[in-house]
Amino acid sequence: MSSTPLLPAPSAPSSTVRTYITQTLITTHSVPLVLAEHLAEKWDIGRGYELRQASRDHLQRVFGDNAGLCLYHAVREAKSVAASRGLSRLQVWSGYAADTTGLLLAGVVILRFMPNVLGLRDRRDPIMWAANPGWWFAFGTCAVNSAYQRGIPSTKDGLLLVGGCLAFLVGIELVKR
Predict the structure, then answer these.
(1) Is the pTM of the predicted complex or chain greater than 0.85?
(2) Which is deepest, 29, 31, 58, 99, by most CB within 10 Å?
(3) How far is CA 62 from the centre of its chain?
(4) What top-level branch of life does the organism fall under (predicted)?
(5) How far is residue 27's CA from residue 36's CA, in Å, rounded to a whole number?
């Protein structure tokens, strides 16, 4: 299997979308040119945006079960490639660091507060290391850096920026104790 062609821009006209569909069927599924063009003609209207947003069921209704499923997976793969294309190593690692520290922070919060809520420990004996502001500062740094490196192009990155700032505030409050 060859690599998937680049997705058409969201504003691309239907003719460009048909060209993409033809190229995708030929390069990724070895469909003969005549059949690929015939299938692509079924995309009569709709921009690149509609192709990107199309559900599997919709593509299967338009192109048939096999071709629709193949196109659905090709579009999903091309979207993930487009999302990761152009990111530097620092940007990729910043995202991993933010995700990892976010999971660690969730574990810390659970270890810090859940035993008391569930009555498993004496309320005067909290897990003190879990209230360490270092966890909050680490997550805040990783989250803000990740959002900054990627330029806040998505909702996830916007949430990372807000969550990182809030984590800094929690860390500062814990240091004040």
Answers:
(1) no
(2) 31
(3) 27
(4) Eukaryota
(5) 10
